[in-house]
Every structure is written in structure tokens, then in C-alpha cells.
Specification:
By secondary structure, the chain is mainly beta. The protein has one domain (11-49, 73-182, 195-340). It contains 2 helices and 21 strands. The termini are far apart.
Length: 341
């Protein structure tokens, strides 16, 4: 046999996601296109195949006949990071917020009175609730295909010293369905039409009066990181994987920021220590105007509390300020958090 002299650049690989209509169907139906994510690099997903490697009685070594392996029942986890472009953000936010496809008009919300969500075998018309994900190899028919994916964690961040404050993302996907390691994703069906001019966002669009942390406006931002978490549980095992995906745990929205220490925020230590039990410390908003709008990156937490305040010693004194969104009541339809793009 002869060796292969072919080599491939790491940048030749792609990660693409598509809204998936039907549970159990990896190829996006209804003409839903795969959208290429603008990722920094491709990392190996956690495939978590089930194996038993225990030495059985009657031998001092693991015999081939003792080895057990199955990919069924494995929960795969795929983590990616890169630049937050419009097409990607629309699908990522839609999924983690539990919004129906196309219902948010660019402003995605999770409500204070949100109930548990579930989807499973036999579910159809789930575009947005479910995603298909493909890690596309430069070798034909060797793509890694993941169906029935949900976004369980999404971080959106920006730093004024990195690419002019361009918004970045980090996302974690999970799937309880069997992985296809030889998927043939049609490259022509992958939409890669993101451009720096039309699909990127930066921190410089936020107006001073709407750079507001727990009720304090006009703060001068150095960096921020918004973390959204909506964990998924998998139940009911069949030959193709898990039958049901449920989201019944806490939906969490936290914001970590670094700001200039000045007379606008000098009271943050006092505010942190003197917060009232059972009440919000104030609204948190990062936006270009009062209301979030389609086509502009913005964040709103109508009610929030301080979880940490600390000095950050740089050339000038800065403050690290952390906050968490809190609901307006279990029966309230007020948003816990909103994100626009």
C-alpha cells in the first residue's frame, strides 16, 4: 500500500449550523440552509462514546472479547468560538432563548414566567428549537454530523483593545442522538455570505446614556461578557439515542464588565453591600437607544443585582462589576433578559 501525500490546513475545516425541522433528521428540511460560523479554530467535540474496559474474571488482562463499546446513549458536546455575525447570532439566540423560528424580529427574550420546554421523538416543525450541526472536512463524505442539537451555553463578549471592540461569541451545543462520522454535507448548501461590513457588531455603537449597569448610566466600558445558560436533560434511550430533550432547570443570565473607576460608579461598593433582599438593584442595559432594535447589538436586563465589585489595577484604576438578571415574578411576562442583533 502507498502512503497518501495529501495534507490539509486546519483552516480548511468549517463549522455550520442549520435550523432543523423534525426531531431525528440531521439534514435541515424545508430548505433551511446551513450557515457557516465565523470560528477562530476547530476543536474536537466531546463524543463521549460508552465503553467498558474492565478486566473480567478469569484473566489478568483485558481480552478483546471483554471490550464493550456503543455510541448509543452518548451525549455529545461541541464547543465553538469566533466572531458574532448576524446569521449565526440569530440562530444561536433563537435556540437558547427557546424562541419560535422567526418570531423575535431580531430581539430575543427569555421571560420571567417561562415554563419548562421539551422536544422529542415525533416532534415536527421545530426549526429554531432544534439545530443540525456539521463539522465539514475538506475530505468528501467525512463530515461529522450532529442532529437534534440544542445550545446550552452562549457567551457574548467584547473588549475595546481587541479588534476595535468587535463582538465575539462562544457557544456550547449538546446532542443526545447518535453521531454520523461520515456525513456528506453539500458544501454548496452552506451559506458563507457573512462580511465584515454587514454582519459584525462593535461596542462603539452604544450611547453613553444607555451604557447602564444596575441603574447607573454613563459608565465607560473597557470590556464585557454576557453569559446565558439554558441546560438540557436527555431521557428515554432508543437505538438512535435519547427520545426526549427537556429544559427544566434554571435559565441564567449574568454580565461581567470592566469599567473606568470615576464619580459615576464610585458608589458601587456601597451599592453592592447595601442591596436590599428580595428586590432588584436596578436595570442593566448596553444599547444605542432606549429600546432594543433589530440590526443593532444590544443587551437589556430590566431587573438585576450586583454579585461582585472589585478594583482592577491598570494604568488607570478600573472596576470589575458583575451582575445577574432577576425575574419580576413567577407570573410576570416581563423579560428576564433580552438580546438584539
Amino acid at each position: 500500500m502507498a502512503i497518501s501525500t495529501a495534507s490539509y490546513s486546519a483552516s480548511s475545516f468549517k463549522v455550520a449550523i442549520a435550523e432543523q425541522d423534525d426531531f431525528g433528521t440531521v439534514t435541515a428540511a424545508g430548505g433551511n440552509a446551513y450557515h457557516a460560523l465565523d470560528v477562530d479554530s476547530i476543536s474536537t467535540p466531546s463524543l463521549n462514546a460508552n465503553q467498558a474496559l474492565d478486566v473480567r474474571s478469569g484473566s489478568r488482562v483485558l481480552q478483546a472479547t471483554d471490550f464493550f463499546h456503543t455510541k448509543v446513549g452518548a451525549i455529545s458536546e461541541i464547543s465553538v468560538s469566533g466572531t458574532a455575525t448576524t446569521g449565526a447570532l440569530d440562530m444561536l439566540l433563537e435556540n437558547i432563548m427557546g424562541e419560535a423560528e422567526g418570531s423575535a424580529s431580531g430581539v430575543y427574550s427569555f421571560l420571567s414566567n417561562a415554563s419548562a420546554q421539551s422536544v422529542g421523538s415525533g416532534s415536527t416543525s421545530q426549526a429554531g428549537t432544534l439545530l443540525s450541526l456539521a463539522i465539514i472536512s475538506p475530505i468528501s463524505n467525512m463530515d461529522l454530523g450532529f442532529k437534534d442539537c440544542v445550545v446550552t451555553a452562549l457567551s457574548l463578549s467584547g473588549d475595546m483593545g481587541t479588534e476595535g471592540g468587535r463582538i465575539k461569541f462562544s457557544a456550547t451545543f449538546k446532542s443526545g442522538s447518535a453521531v454520523d462520522a461520515t456525513q456528506a454535507t453539500t458544501v454548496g448548501a452552506v451559506d458563507t455570505a457573512f462580511t465584515a461590513a454587514t454582519e459584525n457588531y462593535t461596542m462603539n455603537s452604544w450611547a453613553a446614556g444607555y451604557r447602564q449597569l444596575v441603574g447607573v448610566a454613563d459608565v465607560i466600558m473597557s470590556s464585557f461578557n454576557l453569559s446565558l445558560t439554558n441546560e438540557a436533560n436527555f431521557i428515554g434511550l432508543v437505538s438512535t439515542g435519547y427520545e426526549v430533550i427537556a429544559r427544566a432547570g434554571e435559565f441564567s443570565a449574568t454580565l461581567d464588565s470592566t469599567i473606568k473607576y470615576d464619580d459615576k460608579c464610585q458608589a458601587f461598593f456601597e451599592n453592592y453591600l447595601d442591596q436590599g433582599t428580595g428586590t432588584s438593584e436596578g436595570a442593566t442595559k448596553l444599547n444605542h437607544q432606549s429600546a432594543l432594535a433589530d440590526g443593532y447589538f444590544g443587551i437589556s436586563m430590566p431587573s438585576s443585582v450586583l454579585t461582585n465589585v472589585a478594583f482592577n489595577e491598570q494604568a488607570m484604576m478600573m472596576l470589575d462589576v458583575s451582575m445577574k438578571a432577576v425575574g419580576a415574578g413567577a407570573s410576570s411576562s416581563t423579560a428576564l433578559v433580552e438580546v438584539a442583533c
